[in-house]
Amino acid sequence: MTTSSSSQKKKTQVVADLIPNNYEEQPGLIEGKTKVFKDKVAARVDDLDNLGKFVTLFQYVLVLVVILVLVLSRIFKGTTIAYTELKPSYSKYLEMRSDPDVLNMKCSVSNDTLTYASFTTYSYEKADACSWVTEDLLKDKRTYSETKYVLVKDGDSYDLGDGNGAQTSYEGYVLPRSKLGKTSACKELKKLQTCQAIRDGCSRGHELMEKLIEKSESAVFPLKDLLDSESKLLSFVNATLTQSFESLLSGLEGPRIAVKEWASKNMPALYGYFGSLQNYAQGQFFRQELSSDSPTNFFKSVSIACAIYNEKIADAGTCDTSWIGDGVCDAACNNPYCLNDGGDCLTGTALYTSSHEFWDDATDEYTYRGFSPLQQGDELFIQPYYNISDEESLFDDDMVNILKTILNANSEDDVWTALENIFKEPRNHPIWQTPTNMFVGVDPNDTCGNPSTWYKSYEMDRPPSWLEDLEFDIDFVYDTALRDSVFQTLGEPSGALRPSGFVPVQRTDVFSCDAQSKAQNLPGIKGETTANIKAWVDYSYALFAYFKDKCGADEAGHWKTDCPTFTVNDSKGTVTFPLAFLSDDKVGSNDENIDFERYDFIRLVSELEYAYLGSSARENSGSVEQLLLDAGIKRDSAGYSINPSVNYEAYYTASDVSECSYSKRVGASPATVVTVVLGLIGGVTTTVSVFALVLYQLFRKSVFKKYKNEMQSKDPSSSVPV
Q1: What are the b/e assignments for 340-350, b being 16+ CB within 10 Å?
Q2: Is the pTM of this model over 0.85?
Q3: Structure confidence by residue, pLDDT tens digits, 421-455
Q4: Which residues neighbour 486 within 8 Å (Cβ) at sequence distance 6 or greater?
Q5: Could you write out the three-class secondary structure of 362-406?
């Protein structure tokens, strides 16, 4: 063990002796004629010798590492040389751009008339709502005038009175086979003006977009330095186009704001004046019948409405109908039910600012007066005070007794008969004879008289009875008639996959005093996505093909008269398919009790399509109005669907590049490397030597401090200098 340890120490010592010591300690004292070390040096001379060798070795290694790093970096970096390439071809340009040693390349464009059209193509997508309404208005209205198809039965004869003499028996008109799937929903639902307004607004936006693109294409490209990548070029084109498009949208919004402001300030005053004229005409007509033995239904309707107001609505004071139109303002009669006192309260001296605002003694403040017929946007929204089926809260015994006096009726039955006659089919009354305040939805005194609310749109729920009827018709056609009867008899339609869930139903409608506002705020279907509504529309159109397949065409292309029949589960008799779904009469049935209005498949599909129009507009822009302010351009969360594309080679070629200047890295030669190494040795060696000397001195002090601590631990009273 001892021998092995001794041998290892000898080997270590041999290696240590081979290492030079650039920091070897020298004697500093002279005793006699001999130089000796100081005591502290003499005591640690071996430690200092090892320290010096270590620092020397560290110095040499550090010099080698620094020189090696500098030389290698010089070799790999090389030198940089400036170049200029005159009129480089596109292939040469690509070669230079792909060279990793080419730096800071900059090319100059000499074509001063370079236009965007030289290298850019523009495209955009029209909003789905715009595309749909444009296509729909190209379709025909469902009509049976010149293109009617008369279903006949063999063996019978009937003269239609059309000059063609006696024909086989006539049952009704059916939509021609050639027109199936080609009828306009807007025209079918009598929404023509609304759809035309949307189409025209979309068309204006698209025309402006086309002009913007034309202007952009002809514009001169402003940059005189070549953009060095396709992505940079596309970004620049996009930024320019976005700026122009934003200016276009601002231009669309300005006129619309002006129209709103003009309409809101002028139309309420105009219609308020019209309303006062109507009240006056109605009041005078009403007064003429005060002593009549056989008053008209209009006189009776005003008397009943005013009585309802007195008994059920008025807070204080009642209106004597003999005061209406007497030339004296009676506050108790100044309400829509009593013809606004026949216009007596809207006098020139009472006007505050315009012909639609006046001082109301009942409320002790200025108020507005609109034009009541503006409410008549929908026949389904009738005031509950005209609901003659409400016998509990409205037409109770007390009210019936009052009406017996007004109507000079002998019994309650006479009262109910008179009410049914007076308030039957109110939509057919001329405007000036319409029962007062017949329709609900908007307040004629505020909404249609107040400038601040004139242009506002109101989305309101459809009446429950209307929804129930529509839902019944939808369920009857899609489920009872088609799914449970026709498909069971004739087989399922191939390629027509029915969407999941229920058929979407539009439960709301939008009203506004301003016709443009109403047209531009169509509702969608709450809780339904546009995609789901479109799926039901597509499914319905697939059923048209099914209809044609199951009932073929004769030689003239008309429906065959021997189409198959089916039995509806909740109706008596058999029904001819598919004619029952396309008729305006009881065509195709052997039972006169079957009401084919429920079968009207064209109407139901039109309801779906019209709901799709509103939903797609809202999904695209939030409303039809905003859709038109978006120029009818398709948009989503990522922005507008406007897509310019660039051809970089065409851009380079059309730019006519005059020159490209750049710098290029060149690798170092062996001679250069030797020169560099020789140049580095002196500087690096000197720098590292200084660093190593400082390092040695620091460690030397540490050695002496350790020696001092050892001496003091042996003899605390001793004093050893460091």
Answers
A1: bbbbbbbeeee
A2: no
A3: 777 655 566 767 776 666 665 666 677 778 888 88
A4: 566, 577, 578
A5: CCCEEEECCCHHHHCCCCCCECHHHCCCCCCCCCCHHHHHHHHHH
